[in-house]
Write a structure and sequence with these properties.
Blueprint: E1 4-10, H1 12-15, H2 23-33, E2 37-44, H3 48-61, E3 64-68, H4 79-86, E4 91-93, H5 95-108, H6 114-118, E5 121-123, E6 127-129, E7 138-143, E8 146-151, H7 155-174, E9 178-187, H8 191-197, H9 199-203, E10 209-216, E11 219-228, H10 231-249, E12 253-256, H11 261-271, E13 276-280, H12 286-292, E14 301-306, H13 310-317, H14 321-327, H15 332-346, E15 350-356, E16 371-377, E17 382-388, H16 393-412
Parallel strand pairs: 1-2, 1-3, 3-8, 13-14, 13-15
Antiparallel strand pairs: 4-5, 6-7, 7-8, 9-11, 9-12, 10-11, 15-16, 16-17
Amino acid sequence: MSATAEIITIGDEILYGQTLDTNSHWISGELDQIDIKVIRKTTVPDLEDQILSAFEEAEKRADIILITGGLGPTNDDLTKPTLAKYFSVELEMNQAALAEITERYERAGWELNELNRGQAIQPIGSTKITNDLGTAPGIWLERNNTIFISMPGVPFEMKGMMEKEILPKLKSRFVKGKIYHKIIRTGGIPESKLAEKLQDWEGNLPSHIKLAYLPTLAQVKLRLTATGSDMVQLENDVEEQISLCMPLIEKYVYATGNIELEERVGQLLREQNKTIACAESCTGGYLSHLITSVPGSSDYFQGSYVAYSYDIKEKALQVDHEILETLGAVSEEVVIQMAENIRKVFDTTIGVSLSGIAGPGGGTEDKPVGTVWIAYSDGEKTEAKKFVFAKDRKLNIQLSAMVALNMVRSNLMRIS
């Protein structure tokens, strides 16, 4: 049975919505990699009674309690005194922690004041966790077979501490045997349809291999997790299962492992010695941003036009004035001309275009908010597809770009 963990995030700024809690998301993923199951995440304010209550509740249900935030030098940083109160111990100066903080300040040429010295004070009986990237050491405390781990709220400091000290220590103590994960990445199919296609295969998986569906933006990741004593055997077992499921979903699979859709599209373009240009309206350049976020994208990406207005669509992309006036910019005919002409403008192998109603306004009965037309053209083939996404502007922009990438991917892989 897997060890269990609870993550407690401390800070008014999280509850006020002023700071996004990325820490618990990252910690959960790292613990999952070593087969420690997160059973709850809790966010509490900078109030002693709330923090104490969170500690008490977490101790009842988890083997490991990971705490972020509240280790700074100011009066609103309550984690250390509250931990000391919860464990019924006093605070004391940790000389090893003080030496590390002093050395770091001297190296940086900063003056060490009493507030900074106070960061080396820790509950009696605790173990210091070195913070190589900051001045707030972490704290490791144990009671009744439950571990309390307190870390800074600053994400890069927390990650450094987790990777260097905490995760190896937890893995050594709790993880028995080997764990192997493999991700299959799919696009162009919703989770429910994917599950339907894989129902029989999933039902026949060996008991030591588990399947998880991880839907993301316009994609679904399939995670296979195998547990056992022999890593080579686990890898072979997972690969065998992938070979069995692939014929069922091959047309939707764009990669296995740690690769994003825009990276895969870039690989295909480079392998086939093809180039691409984009004509964007409702996405405002977001598709081009995704493509160019990949290192080396200059090998295949030539450029783009953000043709937002009717006037620019006509002047820059030679879209027919009469079609724009009669059918509107959000139409099959317009995106086809945009895709074909952007390819000619930049002399590329492939042209992609998008035009839609991102919202929140601008929708009509025939073209509600979220209506998007996307076109692909490569000189031999031109296709356009209509989608109706969501009522949220940001989501519509992101979905449109991801679906356009998948359309390019499908054509490059010659999937109908």
